[in-house]
Amino acid sequence: MVEYLTMESPTKASHKDDLLHAAMLRCPFEYRGKFWRLDDLPLDDSDQGIVVGLELYFKDLRQVTKRAYLNHELYQLRKERNGNVWYHQPHPAEDEIPRPRYPVNDAILIKKLNQAKGRGPYKQDTLRNRQALARVILSWVYRRLRWTNSNLADFIARIEPGHARTDALDPEQLACLLQNSDALYGRPFTRLIQAAAWIGWRRSNLIGLTWDRVFWPKEINDPITGKRVRQPGYIIVYSADKQTIDPFDLKQRRERTKNRESLLTTMTNRIESLLQECWKHRVPGSNVVFHNGTGGYWNQFRARWDRLKRETGLPENFRFHDLRHTWASEALAAGIDSRTVMDEQGWKDRRMVDRYSHTRLQGRFEQMNRLGQHPNAQLTDQENRDAPSDS
Protein backbone atom coordinates (compact mmCIF):
# COMPACT_ATOMS: atom_id res chain seq x y z
CA MET A 1 0.00 0.00 0.00
CA VAL A 2 2.80 2.41 0.90
CA GLU A 3 4.57 1.76 -2.40
CA TYR A 4 1.40 2.37 -4.38
CA LEU A 5 0.53 5.57 -2.52
CA THR A 6 4.02 7.00 -3.01
CA MET A 7 4.84 5.75 -6.51
CA GLU A 8 1.58 5.50 -8.45
CA SER A 9 -1.30 7.27 -6.73
CA PRO A 10 0.23 10.81 -6.68
CA THR A 11 -0.08 10.92 -10.48
CA LYS A 12 -3.85 10.41 -10.26
CA ALA A 13 -6.49 13.08 -9.80
CA SER A 14 -8.07 10.85 -7.15
CA HIS A 15 -4.95 10.78 -4.95
CA LYS A 16 -6.63 12.63 -2.08
CA ASP A 17 -9.50 10.12 -2.01
CA ASP A 18 -6.99 7.26 -2.23
CA LEU A 19 -5.21 8.53 0.87
CA LEU A 20 -8.46 8.79 2.84
CA HIS A 21 -9.61 5.29 1.91
CA ALA A 22 -6.14 3.82 2.45
CA ALA A 23 -5.95 5.29 5.95
CA MET A 24 -9.25 3.69 6.95
CA LEU A 25 -8.22 0.36 5.42
CA ARG A 26 -5.54 0.27 8.13
CA CYS A 27 -8.10 0.20 10.96
CA PRO A 28 -7.92 -3.13 12.82
CA PHE A 29 -10.92 -5.43 12.41
CA GLU A 30 -12.20 -8.04 14.83
CA TYR A 31 -12.51 -11.73 14.04
CA ARG A 32 -13.18 -14.44 16.65
CA GLY A 33 -12.34 -12.18 19.56
CA LYS A 34 -9.02 -11.00 18.14
CA PHE A 35 -8.05 -7.85 16.23
CA TRP A 36 -6.28 -8.16 12.91
CA ARG A 37 -4.68 -5.63 10.56
CA LEU A 38 -4.68 -5.93 6.80
CA ASP A 39 -1.10 -4.61 6.87
CA ASP A 40 0.05 -7.79 8.63
CA LEU A 41 -1.63 -10.37 6.39
CA PRO A 42 0.34 -12.29 3.76
CA LEU A 43 -0.25 -11.49 0.10
CA ASP A 44 -2.04 -14.72 -0.81
CA ASP A 45 -5.49 -16.29 -0.92
CA SER A 46 -4.98 -18.63 2.04
CA ASP A 47 -7.32 -18.77 5.03
CA GLN A 48 -5.23 -16.11 6.77
CA GLY A 49 -4.23 -14.13 3.67
CA ILE A 50 -5.19 -10.70 2.36
CA VAL A 51 -8.13 -11.94 0.25
CA VAL A 52 -9.96 -13.47 3.22
CA GLY A 53 -8.83 -10.58 5.40
CA LEU A 54 -10.52 -8.02 3.15
CA GLU A 55 -13.75 -10.00 3.28
CA LEU A 56 -13.63 -10.05 7.10
CA TYR A 57 -12.71 -6.34 7.23
CA PHE A 58 -15.85 -5.35 5.33
CA LYS A 59 -17.98 -7.79 7.32
CA ASP A 60 -16.74 -6.05 10.46
CA LEU A 61 -17.65 -2.60 9.09
CA ARG A 62 -21.19 -3.75 8.33
CA GLN A 63 -21.80 -4.12 12.07
CA VAL A 64 -21.71 -0.32 12.44
CA THR A 65 -25.22 1.13 12.79
CA LYS A 66 -24.30 4.74 13.59
CA ARG A 67 -21.22 6.97 13.51
CA ALA A 68 -20.63 10.14 15.51
CA TYR A 69 -17.80 12.67 15.66
CA LEU A 70 -17.08 14.50 18.92
CA ASN A 71 -14.00 16.71 19.23
CA HIS A 72 -12.78 15.30 15.91
CA GLU A 73 -12.81 11.77 17.32
CA LEU A 74 -14.67 8.93 15.60
CA TYR A 75 -17.18 6.84 17.55
CA GLN A 76 -19.09 3.85 16.21
CA LEU A 77 -22.27 2.26 17.46
CA ARG A 78 -21.96 -1.43 16.73
CA LYS A 79 -24.51 -4.21 16.64
CA GLU A 80 -23.52 -7.04 18.97
CA ARG A 81 -25.21 -10.11 20.46
CA ASN A 82 -26.25 -8.31 23.64
CA GLY A 83 -27.33 -5.09 21.93
CA ASN A 84 -25.67 -2.00 20.51
CA VAL A 85 -22.37 -0.81 22.00
CA TRP A 86 -20.50 2.47 21.44
CA TYR A 87 -16.80 2.22 20.55
CA HIS A 88 -14.08 4.80 20.11
CA GLN A 89 -12.05 4.19 16.96
CA PRO A 90 -8.64 5.93 17.14
CA HIS A 91 -7.58 7.38 13.81
CA PRO A 92 -5.14 4.95 12.17
CA ALA A 93 -2.69 7.77 11.36
CA GLU A 94 -2.19 8.65 15.04
CA ASP A 95 0.20 5.78 15.65
CA GLU A 96 2.71 3.86 13.58
CA ILE A 97 0.73 0.72 14.38
CA PRO A 98 -3.00 1.58 14.31
CA ARG A 99 -4.79 0.93 17.58
CA PRO A 100 -7.98 -1.15 17.71
CA ARG A 101 -11.28 0.30 18.85
CA TYR A 102 -12.34 0.08 22.48
CA PRO A 103 -15.77 0.35 24.18
CA VAL A 104 -17.00 3.64 25.65
CA ASN A 105 -17.87 3.33 29.36
CA ASP A 106 -18.43 6.98 30.28
CA ALA A 107 -22.20 7.41 30.83
CA ILE A 108 -22.10 11.14 30.05
CA LEU A 109 -20.23 10.54 26.81
CA ILE A 110 -22.62 7.76 25.83
CA LYS A 111 -25.54 10.13 26.38
CA LYS A 112 -23.91 12.74 24.12
CA LEU A 113 -23.26 10.13 21.46
CA ASN A 114 -26.86 8.93 21.57
CA GLN A 115 -28.09 12.51 21.21
CA ALA A 116 -25.69 13.37 18.40
CA LYS A 117 -27.20 13.46 14.94
CA GLY A 118 -24.24 11.57 13.55
CA ARG A 119 -24.28 9.42 10.47
CA GLY A 120 -25.82 6.06 9.75
CA PRO A 121 -24.15 2.82 8.68
CA TYR A 122 -21.39 2.89 6.11
CA LYS A 123 -22.88 3.28 2.67
CA GLN A 124 -22.52 0.43 0.25
CA ASP A 125 -20.69 2.70 -2.18
CA THR A 126 -18.19 3.71 0.52
CA LEU A 127 -17.34 0.06 1.12
CA ARG A 128 -17.21 -0.49 -2.62
CA ASN A 129 -14.77 2.39 -3.13
CA ARG A 130 -12.47 1.09 -0.40
CA GLN A 131 -12.55 -2.36 -1.89
CA ALA A 132 -11.87 -0.92 -5.35
CA LEU A 133 -8.72 0.76 -4.03
CA ALA A 134 -7.58 -2.51 -2.44
CA ARG A 135 -8.15 -4.34 -5.73
CA VAL A 136 -6.24 -1.68 -7.68
CA ILE A 137 -3.30 -1.95 -5.27
CA LEU A 138 -3.24 -5.76 -5.48
CA SER A 139 -3.32 -5.61 -9.29
CA TRP A 140 -0.53 -3.03 -9.29
CA VAL A 141 1.56 -5.17 -6.93
CA TYR A 142 1.19 -8.11 -9.32
CA ARG A 143 1.78 -6.29 -12.61
CA ARG A 144 4.30 -3.66 -11.54
CA LEU A 145 6.21 -5.05 -8.56
CA ARG A 146 5.81 -8.78 -9.30
CA TRP A 147 5.44 -9.53 -5.61
CA THR A 148 2.76 -12.17 -6.21
CA ASN A 149 2.46 -15.07 -8.63
CA SER A 150 -1.12 -14.20 -9.50
CA ASN A 151 -3.39 -11.19 -9.47
CA LEU A 152 -5.10 -11.50 -6.08
CA ALA A 153 -7.67 -8.91 -7.13
CA ASP A 154 -9.25 -11.62 -9.28
CA PHE A 155 -10.04 -13.65 -6.14
CA ILE A 156 -12.03 -10.85 -4.48
CA ALA A 157 -15.81 -10.89 -4.87
CA ARG A 158 -16.74 -7.35 -5.82
CA ILE A 159 -19.08 -5.37 -3.63
CA GLU A 160 -22.09 -4.39 -5.72
CA PRO A 161 -23.11 -0.73 -6.04
CA GLY A 162 -25.58 0.45 -3.44
CA HIS A 163 -29.18 1.25 -4.21
CA ALA A 164 -29.23 4.59 -5.97
CA ARG A 165 -30.35 7.37 -3.66
CA THR A 166 -29.85 9.95 -6.33
CA ASP A 167 -32.83 11.68 -7.81
CA ALA A 168 -33.80 14.08 -10.54
CA LEU A 169 -36.21 17.00 -10.47
CA ASP A 170 -39.23 17.20 -12.73
CA PRO A 171 -39.89 20.55 -14.49
CA GLU A 172 -42.28 21.74 -11.78
CA GLN A 173 -39.82 20.99 -8.98
CA LEU A 174 -37.00 22.72 -10.84
CA ALA A 175 -39.17 25.79 -11.46
CA CYS A 176 -40.03 25.94 -7.76
CA LEU A 177 -36.35 25.59 -6.82
CA LEU A 178 -35.38 28.45 -9.14
CA GLN A 179 -38.18 30.66 -7.87
CA ASN A 180 -37.17 30.13 -4.24
CA SER A 181 -33.53 30.72 -5.12
CA ASP A 182 -34.42 34.07 -6.67
CA ALA A 183 -36.33 35.06 -3.55
CA LEU A 184 -33.61 33.96 -1.11
CA TYR A 185 -30.36 34.78 -2.87
CA GLY A 186 -31.07 36.61 -6.12
CA ARG A 187 -30.15 35.88 -9.70
CA PRO A 188 -26.42 35.05 -9.31
CA PHE A 189 -27.15 31.90 -7.29
CA THR A 190 -30.13 31.04 -9.47
CA ARG A 191 -28.03 31.25 -12.61
CA LEU A 192 -25.63 28.70 -11.12
CA ILE A 193 -28.52 26.31 -10.44
CA GLN A 194 -29.88 26.81 -13.95
CA ALA A 195 -26.45 26.06 -15.35
CA ALA A 196 -26.29 22.79 -13.41
CA ALA A 197 -29.69 21.68 -14.72
CA TRP A 198 -29.16 22.92 -18.30
CA ILE A 199 -25.45 22.21 -18.85
CA GLY A 200 -25.00 19.15 -16.64
CA TRP A 201 -21.45 19.88 -15.51
CA ARG A 202 -20.08 19.25 -12.06
CA ARG A 203 -20.41 22.13 -9.62
CA SER A 204 -16.67 22.82 -9.50
CA ASN A 205 -16.47 23.13 -13.29
CA LEU A 206 -19.46 25.47 -13.41
CA ILE A 207 -18.10 27.67 -10.63
CA GLY A 208 -14.73 27.74 -12.37
CA LEU A 209 -15.99 28.55 -15.88
CA THR A 210 -14.31 31.68 -17.25
CA TRP A 211 -15.15 33.80 -20.27
CA ASP A 212 -12.05 32.75 -22.19
CA ARG A 213 -13.61 29.27 -22.44
CA VAL A 214 -16.96 30.47 -23.77
CA PHE A 215 -17.16 30.41 -27.58
CA TRP A 216 -20.25 32.10 -28.97
CA PRO A 217 -22.12 30.99 -32.12
CA LYS A 218 -20.99 32.79 -35.26
CA GLU A 219 -21.88 33.14 -38.91
CA ILE A 220 -19.45 31.49 -41.33
CA ASN A 221 -19.33 30.67 -45.03
CA ASP A 222 -20.11 27.04 -45.77
CA PRO A 223 -17.00 25.75 -47.61
CA ILE A 224 -19.16 23.58 -49.89
CA THR A 225 -22.24 25.68 -50.67
CA GLY A 226 -20.75 29.10 -50.05
CA LYS A 227 -23.85 30.06 -48.07
CA ARG A 228 -23.77 31.79 -44.73
CA VAL A 229 -24.47 29.28 -41.96
CA ARG A 230 -24.56 29.55 -38.20
CA GLN A 231 -21.79 27.67 -36.43
CA PRO A 232 -22.90 26.47 -32.98
CA GLY A 233 -21.18 27.84 -29.92
CA TYR A 234 -19.73 25.79 -27.10
CA ILE A 235 -18.11 25.91 -23.68
CA ILE A 236 -15.05 23.91 -22.82
CA VAL A 237 -12.89 22.55 -20.03
CA TYR A 238 -9.41 22.01 -21.41
CA SER A 239 -7.41 18.82 -20.99
CA ALA A 240 -5.22 18.66 -17.90
CA ASP A 241 -3.09 15.71 -19.06
CA LYS A 242 0.10 17.76 -18.79
CA GLN A 243 -0.93 19.55 -15.61
CA THR A 244 0.79 18.70 -12.35
CA ILE A 245 -2.10 17.57 -10.18
CA ASP A 246 -2.25 18.66 -6.57
CA PRO A 247 -5.10 16.51 -5.16
CA PHE A 248 -5.32 18.70 -2.08
CA ASP A 249 -5.90 21.90 -4.08
CA LEU A 250 -9.67 21.97 -4.56
CA LYS A 251 -9.33 25.08 -6.74
CA GLN A 252 -7.68 22.95 -9.42
CA ARG A 253 -10.95 21.09 -9.90
CA ARG A 254 -12.50 24.25 -11.31
CA GLU A 255 -10.26 24.04 -14.35
CA ARG A 256 -10.16 20.31 -15.05
CA THR A 257 -12.55 17.41 -15.34
CA LYS A 258 -12.47 14.41 -13.03
CA ASN A 259 -10.65 12.29 -15.64
CA ARG A 260 -8.43 15.25 -16.66
CA GLU A 261 -9.64 15.01 -20.27
CA SER A 262 -11.15 17.89 -22.21
CA LEU A 263 -14.91 18.43 -22.13
CA LEU A 264 -16.72 20.35 -24.86
CA THR A 265 -20.44 20.98 -24.42
CA THR A 266 -22.74 22.43 -27.06
CA MET A 267 -24.20 25.86 -26.45
CA THR A 268 -27.91 25.23 -26.94
CA ASN A 269 -30.37 28.10 -27.33
CA ARG A 270 -31.29 28.16 -23.65
CA ILE A 271 -27.66 27.89 -22.57
CA GLU A 272 -26.83 30.79 -24.88
CA SER A 273 -29.66 32.82 -23.35
CA LEU A 274 -28.36 32.08 -19.84
CA LEU A 275 -24.80 33.01 -20.80
CA GLN A 276 -25.98 36.24 -22.40
CA GLU A 277 -27.62 37.15 -19.10
CA CYS A 278 -24.34 36.35 -17.32
CA TRP A 279 -22.48 38.54 -19.83
CA LYS A 280 -24.76 41.48 -19.08
CA HIS A 281 -24.04 41.07 -15.35
CA ARG A 282 -20.29 40.47 -15.54
CA VAL A 283 -18.19 42.37 -13.04
CA PRO A 284 -15.31 44.58 -14.26
CA GLY A 285 -11.99 42.91 -13.59
CA SER A 286 -13.57 39.46 -13.16
CA ASN A 287 -13.43 36.66 -15.72
CA VAL A 288 -15.82 34.37 -13.81
CA VAL A 289 -19.02 33.49 -15.67
CA PHE A 290 -21.21 32.25 -12.80
CA HIS A 291 -19.81 34.60 -10.18
CA ASN A 292 -21.15 35.21 -6.68
CA GLY A 293 -22.53 38.65 -7.47
CA THR A 294 -19.32 40.53 -6.79
CA GLY A 295 -17.18 38.78 -9.40
CA GLY A 296 -15.66 36.12 -7.15
CA TYR A 297 -15.99 32.36 -6.94
CA TRP A 298 -18.74 30.87 -4.79
CA ASN A 299 -17.82 29.69 -1.30
CA GLN A 300 -19.79 28.81 1.84
CA PHE A 301 -22.05 27.03 -0.58
CA ARG A 302 -23.52 24.30 1.62
CA ALA A 303 -25.42 26.59 4.02
CA ARG A 304 -27.17 28.35 1.12
CA TRP A 305 -28.01 25.09 -0.59
CA ASP A 306 -29.37 23.43 2.56
CA ARG A 307 -31.65 26.38 3.32
CA LEU A 308 -32.90 26.47 -0.27
CA LYS A 309 -33.76 22.76 -0.13
CA ARG A 310 -35.76 23.27 3.06
CA GLU A 311 -37.67 26.19 1.54
CA THR A 312 -38.43 24.14 -1.56
CA GLY A 313 -39.41 20.99 0.32
CA LEU A 314 -36.71 18.82 -1.25
CA PRO A 315 -35.35 15.80 0.65
CA GLU A 316 -32.44 16.49 2.96
CA ASN A 317 -30.22 14.12 1.00
CA PHE A 318 -30.89 15.80 -2.35
CA ARG A 319 -27.51 17.05 -3.58
CA PHE A 320 -26.55 19.85 -5.93
CA HIS A 321 -24.89 17.07 -7.94
CA ASP A 322 -28.34 15.59 -8.54
CA LEU A 323 -29.05 18.48 -10.90
CA ARG A 324 -26.65 16.61 -13.16
CA HIS A 325 -29.08 13.71 -13.03
CA THR A 326 -31.86 16.16 -13.86
CA TRP A 327 -29.98 17.17 -17.02
CA ALA A 328 -29.47 13.58 -18.18
CA SER A 329 -33.06 12.57 -17.45
CA GLU A 330 -34.46 15.52 -19.38
CA ALA A 331 -32.14 14.83 -22.31
CA LEU A 332 -33.25 11.20 -22.65
CA ALA A 333 -36.91 12.12 -22.13
CA ALA A 334 -36.56 14.56 -25.04
CA GLY A 335 -35.44 11.70 -27.27
CA ILE A 336 -31.74 12.58 -27.43
CA ASP A 337 -29.76 9.44 -28.18
CA SER A 338 -27.36 7.99 -25.64
CA ARG A 339 -24.29 8.62 -27.81
CA THR A 340 -24.99 12.37 -27.89
CA VAL A 341 -25.65 12.43 -24.14
CA MET A 342 -22.30 10.71 -23.57
CA ASP A 343 -20.46 13.15 -25.85
CA GLU A 344 -21.99 16.19 -24.15
CA GLN A 345 -20.65 15.09 -20.74
CA GLY A 346 -17.48 13.34 -21.83
CA TRP A 347 -18.66 9.95 -20.62
CA LYS A 348 -16.88 6.88 -21.98
CA ASP A 349 -19.29 4.23 -20.75
CA ARG A 350 -22.94 3.74 -21.67
CA ARG A 351 -23.57 2.80 -18.04
CA MET A 352 -22.89 6.40 -17.02
CA VAL A 353 -26.01 7.42 -18.95
CA ASP A 354 -28.04 4.86 -17.01
CA ARG A 355 -26.52 6.05 -13.75
CA TYR A 356 -27.36 9.69 -14.31
CA SER A 357 -30.80 9.32 -15.88
CA HIS A 358 -34.11 8.69 -14.16
CA THR A 359 -37.12 7.76 -16.25
CA ARG A 360 -40.17 9.43 -14.78
CA LEU A 361 -43.41 7.46 -14.42
CA GLN A 362 -45.25 9.72 -16.87
CA GLY A 363 -42.51 9.30 -19.44
CA ARG A 364 -42.48 5.54 -18.95
CA PHE A 365 -46.27 5.49 -19.35
CA GLU A 366 -46.10 7.42 -22.62
CA GLN A 367 -43.39 5.12 -23.94
CA MET A 368 -45.06 1.89 -22.85
CA ASN A 369 -48.49 3.05 -23.98
CA ARG A 370 -47.26 2.78 -27.55
CA LEU A 371 -47.62 -0.98 -27.19
CA GLY A 372 -50.66 -2.17 -29.06
CA GLN A 373 -51.05 1.09 -30.97
CA HIS A 374 -50.50 -0.54 -34.38
CA PRO A 375 -53.89 -0.67 -36.19
CA ASN A 376 -53.61 -4.40 -36.84
CA ALA A 377 -52.78 -5.04 -33.21
CA GLN A 378 -55.95 -3.46 -31.79
CA LEU A 379 -59.27 -5.16 -31.30
CA THR A 380 -62.29 -3.56 -29.71
CA ASP A 381 -64.18 -5.38 -26.98
CA GLN A 382 -66.87 -6.29 -29.52
CA GLU A 383 -64.27 -7.62 -31.97
CA ASN A 384 -62.74 -9.68 -29.18
CA ARG A 385 -66.12 -11.18 -28.42
CA ASP A 386 -66.82 -11.89 -32.09
CA ALA A 387 -63.40 -13.36 -32.82
CA PRO A 388 -63.48 -17.12 -33.48
CA SER A 389 -62.02 -19.34 -30.81
CA ASP A 390 -59.41 -22.02 -31.38
CA SER A 391 -61.90 -24.72 -30.53
If you had to describe this structure to a student in words, what would you say it looks like?
With 391 residues, the chain is of the alpha+beta class. The chain has helices at 2-7, 15-25, 50-61, 107-115, 124-145, 171-185, 187-199, 203-207, 269-280, 301-312, 322-333, 338-345, 350-356, 361-368, 381-386, and strands at residues 29-31, 34-36, 64-70, 73-80, 83-89, 102-103, 214-215, 218-221, 228-231, 233-237, 263-267. β1 and β2 (34-36) form a beta hairpin.
Please give the structural blueprint.
Blueprint: H1 2-7, H2 15-25, E1 29-31, E2 34-36, H3 50-61, E3 64-70, E4 73-80, E5 83-89, E6 102-103, H4 107-115, H5 124-145, H6 171-185, H7 187-199, H8 203-207, E7 214-215, E8 218-221, E9 228-231, E10 233-237, E11 263-267, H9 269-280, H10 301-312, H11 322-333, H12 338-345, H13 350-356, H14 361-368, H15 381-386
Antiparallel strand pairs: 1-2, 3-4, 4-5, 5-6, 7-10, 8-9, 10-11
Helix pairs in contact: 2-5, 6-7, 6-10, 7-9, 7-11
